[in-house]
Write a structure and sequence with these properties.
Phosphorylase Kinase, domain 1, Transferase(Phosphotransferase), domain 1, 2 domains, 5-stranded antiparallel β-sheet, globular
Length: 242
């Protein structure tokens, strides 16, 4: 099987540049020998990743998966755009809100298939013509009910929620925590009071105190544009309590 996969990759693609190598695998930029289209070829050490599901469904956030062999060898779309980790200036509040709304819509699709990304951070977010894309599902998992903790503890220090370090099982609320930390980082001092209230709730230590779904988070974000939020801070805070 491994020989067949290696032959297929060599026949169809030309490796151009090694982008990353670690104990978790390697990532190559490559091109199709037939069309010249740029792709990403990944070899990952982990198992149980959701690349087969991503290949099956037309999700809006992740790269399109063209080929997947036993979920350890993946050929996927190369997403060109602005990596938010490399952004030179802070996001404005309106930019942050638009990114959050798009993330809510995209994560809703993933969460419906029980896919939890678990590594949302600036370097995994790419703006492509005003559309946000989410890359690197190598720390992702498929949520399974009635488990007390995750089998594998993966994530990025400073972004991952407490439960990702063994205090509980990660679920959709874990991705909401990651969204909150990420947008706080990208906003910096540009974060206004009303949006800060929302992001603070995203990043509550106890998952029970966070938004329980991206639908709830999206509803709170849409409240930001309503006229009554301009009346008093007390009124705006009340609208964020569910």
């Amino acid at each position: 099987m491994k020989e067949n996969v290696a032959e297929y990759l060599e026949f169809r693609f030309e490796k151009l540049k090694l982008l990353k190598r670690s104990e978790r695998g390697e990532v190559w930029l490559a091109s199709s020998k037939q069309s010249g289209e740029l792709v990403i070829i990944k070899r990952v050490a982990a198992t149980g990743l959701p690349y087969d599901l991503i290949k099956k469904f037309s999700f809006r956030l992740p790269a399109k998966v063209f080929f997947c062999a036993e979920e350890t060898v993946i050929v996927e779309e190369f997403i060109q755009g602005e990596n938010l980790f490399e952004r030179k200036k802070l996001l404005s509040e309106s930019e942050a809100r638009e990114i959050l709304l798009q993330l809510c819509d995209g994560l809703k699709e993933l969460h419906a298939q029980k896919i939890i990304h678990r590594d949302i951070k600036p370097s995994n977010l790419i703006l492509q013509g005003g559309i946000i894309r989410l890359i690197d599902f190598d720390a992702a998992r498929i949520f399974k009910a009635n488990k007390e903790v995750d089998t594998k503890l993966l994530g990025t220090k400073g972004y991952a929620p407490p439960e990702q370090y063994g205090s509980g099982q990660t679920d959709q609320r874990s991705d909401i925590y990651l969204i909150g930390v990420t947008i706080k980082t990208l906003l910096g001092e540009n974060c206004g009071e009303h949006l800060k209230d929302i992001l603070d709730r995203c990043t509550e230590y106890d998952p029970k105190n966070r938004f329980q779904s991206v639908d709830e988070l999206k509803e709170a974000l849409e409240e930001l544009n309503k006229p009554e939020l301009e009346l008093t801070p007390e009124k705006s805070r009340r609208t964020l309590i569910f």
